[in-house]
Amino acid sequence: QKEVEQNSGPLSVPEGAIASLNCTYSDRGSQSFFWYRQYSGKSPELIMFIYSNGDKEDGRFTAQLNKASQYVSLLIRDSQPSDSATYLCAVNDYKLSFGAGTTVTVRA
Amino acid sequence: SQTIHQWPATLVQPVGSPLSLECTVEGTSNPNLYWYRQAAGRGLQLLFYSVGIGQISSEVPQNLSASRPQDRQFILSSKKLLLSDSGFYLCAWSIRTSGISGANVLTFGAGSRLTVL
Questions:
Q1: Per residue in B42-65, pLDDT tens?
Q2: One-character DSSP codes across A23-49
Q3: Closest residue of chain A to B33, computed from CA coordinates
């Protein structure tokens, strides 16, 4: 089993809709969780991190963590064409393990 | 503010040739430093990380090596490149923190795209 798994995508959503991205992880001891955005040909950039169960909101982004289910998600509200990118989930044990990413395309 | 520089940005190398990628961080001291590789359409694979000068941990056995000759300098090398070494190489840094908040937030350099022919 991979350490971090993401829904494979690609995910296509209309402009203004909510994009929902999911991530599961295998190590119950993981304590902090990250979402990165990577535009094509560029390096990843941090969107947000979360380490407590529940929701964390930052602008149009909401991260949700459920440690009992070993599940973390990212919601993008009011999706914009500029949100079109690959979203990487990362989980911290002693190092960051990344999922393979979910590619999101926002249709104008 | 902290910045991370990585070079060269792109390179095309023949099989069997050597490799040297360099990464430097400015505006911080004692960072954790990382080398990741991203193959086409794949996720990020951690290659090496370092918590201090001369301290290198290898995650994946391969024909690559890493060195940290100075606090804010991290170098990725190979004596003989393989076709499978092609990919997007990313250097990253994080602060060291004793607490959990923000632990291991990585900031990436712009990356080095390597094509081995």
A1: 789 999 989 899 999 888 867 899
A2: EEES-TT--EEEEEEE-TTS--EEEEE
A3: A95
